[in-house]
Amino acid sequence: MSELAIIVRTDPVPDAAAELGIVGPITHASAPALREAVRGIIHADPSRPCPQLRLDLTCCTNVDVDGLLALAVSQQVARGHGGDLYLENVPPLIERQVRQHHFDSLLHDPSGRDLSVPRSDRLDA
């Protein structure tokens, strides 16, 4: 059985985004935990709009098709509540899977910047 750890950044971020660090694989076995964590953030404060959700995949070890679907569905749910969800610091093999399965929207923030490049290597960081 694969285990997934989700680390939620609790200190405020300048752009009011919610940051989640993913540790381990996002697979069929761990996708429900990811969906539940995202749902919890989206519905945490009904009086406020849904935040932008940034998932840092620096420590993500694998993503299967069920994991990609969980990410895409979570992105649609966030967008349906006035927010968005996108991936940052995506390891090259996982980025290739994301693009191969046409989930490229997960790699772009609302301004259209490609976030597959690690934050420290981006010119706009």
Short account of what is shown:
The chain has 125 residues and is an alpha/beta fold. The protein has helices at residues 31-42, 65-80, 92-100; strands at residues 5-8, 18-26, 52-63, 84-88. The radius of gyration is 13 Å and the shape is globular.
Describe this structure in words.
The termini are far apart. The protein has helices spanning 31-42, 65-80, 92-100, and strands spanning 5-8, 18-26, 52-63, 84-88. The longest helix has 16 residues, at 65-80. Strands 1-2-3-4 form a four-stranded mixed beta sheet, sandwiched between helices. The chain has three helices and four strands, in the order E-E-H-E-H-E-H. It has 125 residues and is of the alpha/beta class. Helices cover 30% and strands 24% of the residues. It is globular and about 40 Å long. Helix 1 (31-42) runs parallel beside helix 2. The model has no long low-confidence stretch (mean pLDDT 83). It has one domain: STAS domain (Transcription Regulator spoIIAA).
N-to-C span:
37 Å
Largest sheet: 4 strands, mixed
Tell me the strand order in the biggest sheet.
Answer: 1-2-3-4
What is the fourth-level CATH superfamily?
STAS domain
The pLDDT mean sits at 83
- Percent of residues in β-strands: 15-25%
Cα shape:
globular
Order of helices and strands: EEHEHEH
Task: Using the coordinates shown, work out and report the CATH topology.
Answer: Transcription Regulator spoIIAA
In angstroms, what is the radius of gyration?
A: 13 Å
The number of helical runs is 3
> At the first level of CATH, what is the class?
Alpha Beta
Secondary structure class reads alpha/beta
- Name the helicity range: 25-40%
Count the strands? Answer: 4
Count up the domains: 1
Annotated CATH architecture: 2-Layer Sandwich
Quaternary class: single chain
Could you name the ranges where pLDDT drops below 50 across 5 or more consecutive residues?
none
